[in-house]
Specification:
The structure holds 2 protein chains of 2 kinds. By secondary structure, chain A is mainly α. Helix content of chain A is about 70%, strand content about 0%. In chain B, about 75% of the residues lie in helices and about 0% in strands. The chains are: A mainly alpha, B mainly alpha.
Chain lengths: ~325, ~230
């Protein structure tokens, strides 16, 4: 265990870990959720089987759709696989490509992925897909200020807006953890993640009820490998958001601080444990609250906004 | 740009508690039912006692432990009990919500929260403009207390029922206790206790107000009173 892994290999491992683990994390959450509801639930590997099945199927496209309809899933997955290069997935020290983009850069990539999927949904002419993409865009516009204020808080806390810098700041002392600004920003981000992964307040992420579907509805017209890519993209997005929450805000411990293979393997295990823990918390919250009416979403977002704004206020006076 | 320095663990904890108290205040602002508001008031008062304990441990002030216990007994147990009984007595059906409380909001919850954010911002910037920089008075907790006072005023203004207004007033008292606790933690115990008993007087006055209003208007809503112009 003395040999050090080359940096590019670790960087590649960050992407591979997220890519391979994402369906598994989704499977675990589905299992936990089923248990909470008193069902036995699907096996944990079910999302992998679903993806494998879809990849073997034929791909169809609506007649009027242009090349963009088929390119969108590829672009979206590419975006999702680029984000793990920018955030601390496995290592506490920044990897060379980690400074390609800051938190806003990562946010742009996630937004670009969501944008191309929405545009592809518009290409189809299917009312449900269009409804889903229109709602997804509207609601992401109203959660945007919350995300911005969280970024402001990070900037005030660290003097930069690099995810690695915030993780290092949080690790540096207990005083950095128990400060209102940090806790408020983390809480606001968690609320945004609950919304973005289609848990509460209005969506049903399992996708059996068209009126509760927002993100899921956008993929209605895709099929075969393209649909598989979209599903996989959703799982990737979920794991990426959980990673940001756990490794940057809540618990940036257990990351590899050296290049030794043992440390990196431990970091992979820690990441998976943290993602599953966040996922269980999300499943419990999802199952303890009733879904709201669609337009009640402003109440939920206003609460998240309040928390994020308070975070910045507390820093304005210093000592936050 | 330089990062904002982190406070110590104790001060950080005190600030977090104060921030959560402000968030609970916002919870009261958007909560529709009086009994949920009372529950939130209990949580807020309990946090105030926890804050007193944190400050007592930090600054080595044993008096504050007694104050925390007294404050908890009064605000977490006694006052909510009295408020519940007052609201229950005005109500023919036990357990049901008192008339005129539900639907007394003049703003939608989201707008009320946004208006509250503006009020809180005003409080923050006012406290910041005072320019207090001293180790004895943590300016952040003071600013949070100022924001809480203003949001409590907002709660009393945007609701049209006497019960919510009373709870707004009690929350206001919590905010002032918070400010007193962080600015003058070493205040003699006898004075602090005297302030606490002031609260009881307020509860009695509000109790009279709620009952007399209910016997005259058969509702807790103050909407009918707008017609009474001189």
């Amino acid at each position: 265990m003395s040999a050090a892994l080359p940096i590019p290999v670790i960087q590649l491992l960050q992407v591979l870990t997220v890519a391979v683990a994402a369906p598994g994390v989704t499977g675990v959450i589905a299992k936990v959720e089923a248990r909470l509801q008193g069902r036995r639930g699907p096996r944990i590997a079910q999302p992998y089987y679903d993806l494998a099945k879809l990849f073997r199927k034929e791909a169809l496209a609506p007649e009027q759709a242009s090349w963009f309809f088929l390119a969108a899933p590829l672009i979206a997955v590419t975006c999702y696989l680029t984000v793990p290069l920018l955030i601390p997935v496995l290592t506490s020290y920044p990897l060379p490509l980690g400074y390609m983009g800051d938190i806003l850069g990562g946010g742009f990539l996630l937004a670009l992925a969501s944008f191309v999927v929405a545009t592809a949904a518009l290409e189809t002419g299917s009312p449900y897909a269009q409804l889903g993409s229109s709602r997804a865009k509207t609601f992401s516009a109203i959660t945007e200020p919350v995300v911005l204020f969280v970024v402001f808080t990070v900037a005030l806390l660290t003097g930069t807006d690099l995810p690695y810098a915030l993780a290092a700041t949080v690790r540096s002392s207990a005083g950095q953890v128990i400060r209102p600004a940090h806790l408020l920003a983390a809480a606001a981000l968690f609320m945004v993640i609950l919304h973005e992964t289609g848990r509460i307040p209005v969506e049903t992420h399992t996708g059996t009820n068209e009126f509760g579907m927002i993100e899921e509805a956008r993929a209605f017209e895709h099929s075969g490998p393209y649909f598989a890519l979209l599903k996989w993209g959703g799982q990737l997005k979920q794991l990426i958001l959980f990673t940001i929450l756990a490794n940057v805000f809540l618990a940036p411990w257990g990351l590899a601080s050296t290049q030794r293979p043992g440390a990196v393997v431990l970091a992979i295990a820690a990441l998976l444990a943290k993602a599953v823990a966040v996922g269980c918390a999300v499943a419990v919250i999802d199952n303890s609250f009733a879904k709201l009416r669609l337009f009640k979403i402003t109440e939920y977002v206003s609460a998240a906004f309040l928390i994020a704004v308070l975070g910045v206020f507390t820093l304005y006076l210093g000592g936050g | 740009m330089d990062p904002v320095q982190a406070p110590g663990v104790y001060e950080g904890a005190a600030n977090v508690i104060a921030a959560v108290m402000l968030l609970i205040e916002f919870g009261m602002l958007r909560q529709a039912l009086a009994r949920d508001q009372i529950r939130l008031y209990m949580a807020q008062s309990a946090l105030l006692s926890v804050l007193a304990i944190v400050i007592a441990a930090d600054r080595n002030l044993p008096d504050l432990y007694a104050l925390a216990a007294l404050s908890a007994a009064l605000k977490v147990v006694a006052v909510p009990l009295v408020m519940r009984r007052l609201l229950g007595r005005t109500d023919p059906d036990e357990g049901e919500e008192a008339p005129g409380v539900a639907g007394s909001q003049t703003l939608s919850p989201a707008s009320a929260v946004l208006a509250g954010i503006v009020l809180a911002a005003y409080g923050f910037f006012c406290a910041g403009a005072l320019g207090i920089r001293s180790p004895a008075a943590p300016v952040l907790a003071l600013a949070l207390a100022t924001a809480m006072v203003l949001v409590a005023f907002g709660l009393m203004i945007v609701r049209r029922d006497v019960a919510s207004q009373a709870i707004g007033f009690l929350a206001l008292e919590n905010a002032i206790s918070l400010a007193a606790l962080v600015v003058a933690a070493g205040l003699p115990l006898i004075l602090e206790t005297a302030f606490l008993f002031d609260l009881l007087v307020a509860v009695v006055v509000f109790g009279m107000l709620i009952r007399s209003h209910h016997t005259k208007a058969e509702s807790l809503s103050t909407a009918d009173l707008t017609r009474l112009r001189g």
